[in-house]
Every structure is written in structure tokens, then in C-alpha cells.
Predict the 3D structure of the following.
Amino acid sequence: DGIVATSNSQYKRFTARFNSEHQLTKAIRFGQNIGYTRTNSVGVGTNTEYGSPLNRAINIDPITPIVETDPAKYGAAPYIGNPVVRNEAGFPYGISQYAQSEILNPVAALQVAQGKGWSDKVVANAFVEAEIIKGLKVRSQGGVDLAFYGSESFTPIYYLNSINQTTITSYNRNANRGLFYSLENTISYNRQIEKHNITGLIGYSFQKNRGETQGGTKDGIPVTNIKDASLQFPVSRANDVFYGGEYLNTLNSAFARLTYNYDEKYLLTGIIRRDGSSRFGPNNKFGYFPSGSVGWVASKEDFFPKNPYVTFVKFRGSYGVVGNDNIGDFRYLSTVSGGRNFTLGSSAGLVNGVSPDALSNPDLKWEQTSSTDIGVDMNLFGNFTLTADWYKKKTTGMLLQIAVPGYVGNAGPIGNVADLSNRGFELELGYQKRLGEFSLKVNANGAFVKNNIDFLGDDKEYLGGQTVTPQALEITRTKVGYAIGSFYGYRSDGLFQNQAQINNYKNQGGGLIQP
């Protein structure tokens, strides 16, 4: 049950899981992990800062009763002639004579809200692995995430005050389906020759994510509660709204990894990926992302002094590039959308129409972030650990919407229009000690980071940021040479310290600015 209005706020979940792993032969093993979840929920909307149940309870005047039981009052306006909300005994809920807008009787407002949601979800993973010869393994694994979910809501005819009222019922229902599945095939080989350890891996993976949604809204149905509501009522279709949509994206990847270490003292790793995303245009679907790291455990060297103060020292460095395609589907195309109604000929009636909702950009490509990291790990005095890292990140081709002149008559496309750099230093100090059955672990960390906008596109000096009301004054900006979302405004020259400074504060014409 929920905290506010337990009859209107509930959440139920059923979960089942099955895991197993089997050794078919000495060289072949397989396993699976299957889970199912069913949820049913009824929630209370938070609305605005004044429209939530708790804020309404705080802000409404204290002399308005929860339920009006005085015949002299509920026999007069506004109770007479309006579809006021009533309790099970037939008494109307109190209506404030002083509070208006969204400051309502919170108990009455909770009786109006009717809605629920549900979901069924299956997540399954399976693998099979075979060791062809010693050290050579072939592995195939796949996963499925299937979800069916939806919600429905009903608004009855009600009167809460002169502003919050409705004279027609409304019912909405939507049903959605999502399917994500992946397949990954790898071949790995591990070989140890004396103190040399080499591991290589090559693989291919495929991911597909698709889903669809359908729903509708019907007004004027002759019912009073959500249990009896349906989209099938044969009432006027003038205000019916039905909608649907789908999404689809895929990702293909080929990758290889090589790791080497000598006596766990000298460490080397190299990785290369080739990722292809359906979210980019035909010219740049694929991107190449290399990475590598080196490590040196200096405390394993013969020349390293043996002492109880510094027992472990490891120096490491890495460089890598990763890609980002998180922009939604089909953003490189000029898709169309509805809502563009127009008139034909001499008729005054509106005709539904569609038109392109943004310009296309077939050259859209991966956003790339390169990272350089240099660090050291140390064990000190037996119980202390120290980790220090210096890093630098550079993001190029940030995926943002391109600004276009207003006379174009359409929104700008998504483009690779900005560059961003981050650099910083992180330090972590830890302490751990075991005292019998008691274990103590303490960690303290600190960090310094600085980000900078290096490029915002040829047509952009800055991007607008946060504003404050009532004049919608802009107080932050993202500008080349500054950090993201830097505070923007006039700098103060300070406070007047005496009358002489006030008298000398004049404009160019010699007039006193602040008499």
C-alpha cells in the first residue's frame, strides 16, 4: 500500500526466477537464467507544486471541512446545481470559499483520480561454451527482454471548484510492447608459457530493440467509474483520439581483445571495436573505437626495497575511445508528423495533414569520447590503500540540434556540432582492518574536475541555459571557453562604503546615478 490514500495508491509485484548450469561433457557446458515479473499499480499523481495531495492539505484554509454535513450549506451554492464529489454516505466534500485554482480539498481530489497500470516482463539469458582444445574456447550467448505494459485512466464528471470542474467524462487506455534481444559469439584462446600469460579474444555481437504502442481517448462515455469504462462505447466519435507508433534500432559490433602479462608484473591490454548503429545515416553508420592500457607492478621488482611501510605499488596508464548513439531513432531522416491542419478551397473546415517535422542529415555520425588516464595504486603501512588518478577526456562531435533560421519553417536536424573537454584529478584513501569477527573499512575520496566547451559550431556563440521568473532572465550559459552551464550576468563592482562614493557615482553626463 502507498503512503497517501492507501485505497488509491497500491503496488503489487510477483516475481519468479529459474537459473541452472550444466556440464554436458568434459568440454561442453551450458546454462540459462530466466525471470518473470508481473506488476499492478495504482498511483497518486504529484501534479504541480500546489496540486499534490500533501501540498493541498497544507495550503487549503483550515475552516473548510473535509465533508460538508451542514444542510444549510450543502443545500446552497456551489453545492446545488453542480456535480460535486460525495462520500459513500452521500454527503459532499467541502469546497473552500477562499482557496481557488489547484488548492482543493485533497480528499475530494483523490476521489476523482482513477487510473492504474500493469506490466508483464520476461528476461532470459542462455549460453553454451565448448573447449575445442586446451585453452581454445568457443562461446555463444543470447538474451531476450520481452515486456508488455500499459495503463488506463478515467475522469468522471465532477465539480471541485469553479476552475477545477468538467462536464464530460473521458477515458484513456494504452497498450505497449517492447522486445530486445541480443546474440554474442566469441572465440578465446589462453596460453601460459612459464611466466608469460597471453589471452586473445575475437567476437561478434548483434542487438535489436523494437517496440510499439497503441492507445486511444474517448470522451462522453456513460459511466461513472473506471471499472465500467471502455473504448467500445458507441458514442459520438467527434472527439475521439487514437494513436500508435513504433521504434526500431539495431547495433552490430565486431571486436577483438589481446591481453598479456609477465609474472603479473608487466601488464598490457589492447582492444579494437567496430560498431554499426541504425541511428546514423548511410554515410556514417560504423565507427571504430580502439583502447589500450599498460601497467607496471613496481613492488614486484627485485630492486624494490622490502619494508613494512610500502608493500604494493602499481603504475598504470590507459587510452581509449568510446562512441555514443543515444539520439533516438531515425534522426538522420526528415520524418513526418501530424497536427498540421489546414483548409482546402472555400471550405472553412479543417483537414488533418502531416508534414516534415525536421530537416534531414545523412552525414550524422557517432559522437566520440577519448579518455587518457594515468594512475597509481599503493598499499601503505599494512592497512592503508592509496589510489590517485589524473585523467583527460575529449568529446568531439557532440550530438545536438542544429540551429536554423526561422524562415526555414522547420526544426533543425541533429548534428555533430560541439566539442567538450574534461580534465581532473581523483584521490582515494582507504583503511581496512579485521579484528576477530569484526571487519572495519573506511574510505575517503576527493576530486577536482574542470570542463570546457571547445567548439559549439560555426553558427553558435552560446547555448541558453536556466532562467528565473517572472522576467525569464537567463542566469546560465554554455559558451566556448567556459564550463557547461556557467553562471551568466553582470559583475558587481561592490558595495558603497561611504557617502562620498555615492556622490561620485555618476553617468557620462555627470548626473548622479543613484541619488
User: Anything to note?
Assistant: The longest strand covers residues 170-193. The CA atoms of residues 30 and 388 lie 41 Å apart.
